[in-house]
Amino acid sequence: xxxxxxxxxxxxxxxxxxxxxxxxxxxxxxxxxxxxxxxxxxxxxxxxxxxxxxxxxxxxxxxxxxxxxxxxxxxxxxxxxxxxxxxxxxxxxxxxxxxxxxxxxxxxxxxxxxxxxxxxxxxxxxxxxxxxxxxxxxxxxxxxxxxxxxxxxxxxxxxxxxxxxxxxxxxxxxxxxxxxxxxxxxxxxxxxxxxxxxxxxxxxxxxxxxxxxxxxxxxxxxxxxxxxxxxxxxxxxxxxxxxxxxxxxxxxxxxxxxxxxxxxxxxxxxxxxxxxxxxxxxxxxxxxxxxxxxxxxxxxxxxxxxxxxxxxxxxxxxxxxxxxxxxxxxxxxxxxxxxxxxxxxxxxxxxxxxxxxxxxxxxxxxxxxxxxxxxxxxxxxxxxxxxxxxxxxxxxxxxxxxxxxxxxxxxxxxxxxxxxxxxxxxxxxxxxxxxxxxxxxxxxxxxxxxxxxxxxxxxxxxxxxxxxxxxxxxxxxxxxxxxxxxxxxxxxxxxxxxxxxxxxxxxxxxxxxxxxxxxxxxxxxxxxxxxxx
Length: 533
Description:
Layout: E1 4-5, E2 7-10, H1 26-39, E3 43-45, H2 53-58, E4 68-74, H3 86-93, E5 98-104, H4 107-114, H5 118-134, E6 138-144, H6 146-152, H7 154-166, E7 171-176, H8 183-193, E8 202-206, H9 213-223, E9 227-230, H10 244-253, H11 255-258, E10 261-262, H12 267-270, H13 273-283, E11 301-302, H14 305-313, E12 331-332, H15 340-349, H16 360-373, H17 382-392, E13 401-413, E14 419-431, E15 434-442, H18 445-455, E16 468-476, E17 485-492, E18 498-505, H19 508-526
Parallel strand pairs: 1-10, 2-3, 2-9, 3-4, 4-5, 5-6, 6-7, 7-8, 8-9, 11-12
Antiparallel strand pairs: 13-14, 14-15, 16-17, 17-18
Helix pairs in contact: 1-13, 5-7, 6-7, 8-9, 14-15, 16-17, 17-19, 18-19
């Protein structure tokens, strides 16, 4: 049986730009468009030419090779002719393959927001679609607040959708603009719309205000729509949009959809989805959601020992899809809930050969549980766990010894009278029998320590040249002046890989130094460095 084609329409560069804290430059937009084009989405909507200098510059040339490059904008203003509407002219002149018009389809908004009549709004829809068609553009109409409009006045909402279709719109997109409609409502209303506009000309644009955007999109597909709109990692205004990073693997890996439909994303692109999702987070300077479906670091993580025992024997028991299909991997976490199965599984992944009956496992398990009881968190710090495990098994070279360190923080006026705070760190090391003393200033005590520790490691200086501290998190584990502090550090190097290390102490600087020290040792270990006699 042949499969029906579903089309993916990405609105990251418009809807996503409305996310708090996200501000795309032209170069950012170019990079995101390339990511989307390579992924295999069918449409890349780039924004609203004329609305701001960034979007106008972005549409100065076509930005995709495969995907349909789409501009977004309003239908012509009521009471203004096509030739006298500057916004419409900018859309028609943009270097875009398609135009997605947005139009009011709730009669209440037509009256209150547009200040016009229902008939005039229908005329604007028809004339705008026709003008874009005559200009050689593929045309979409985004029916704003369609589901609320349908509930209030179904005849008028349907009339708006039909006006666009009759004028030649390739897609009539039903938008749940405030994200308040539920899947059963979506399915029922879409079914009614298909009596007026064929399903292969209908799209769904769901917002995530009740965390139903993915479910609503799938409900719309089951009811007949054949285009799905969404964003990378679900970003968007308020609570976000339908998450294409979740929808794509669901459509490709869940038989109820995979057996009936096909999309333009290849298996090879799907296998790069986790990397793409994280790359996008880097571009917009957001921390990846560890619990994101399919691509999150915890998406295939198992913590409890009894589950770990089962997953080692039969991964399908606890994994709804093969993690490798989306470029992710299984994580068997090591924590105070761990059993031997957790340890063995994680050590095997790290390439540490150990028998399941090795008596050293009991000692390691006791050590992990004890350390977790005083504040360590090895499920979040895999590099520190690997070092702990290898040390128990005698597998970490003695690269250098730390004789001591001290940090000073001074608040003073500088030479031009400005009040500044300066941190200075001194670290005493022994490397290959040679005593080294390094001094460095930094933006705070941790930065000063990090700089001093890595400033001169003798023969290892070239190995650690590309080491970078990229994230630093502090958590106070109990209250009071004697609070225990846990520091979690993420480090990276030129390979593009990153790792986490942890330190715990009543002193935040001491905890930070422990995590920094582990990070350095881990970098040397993974680089294959040899200890110097």
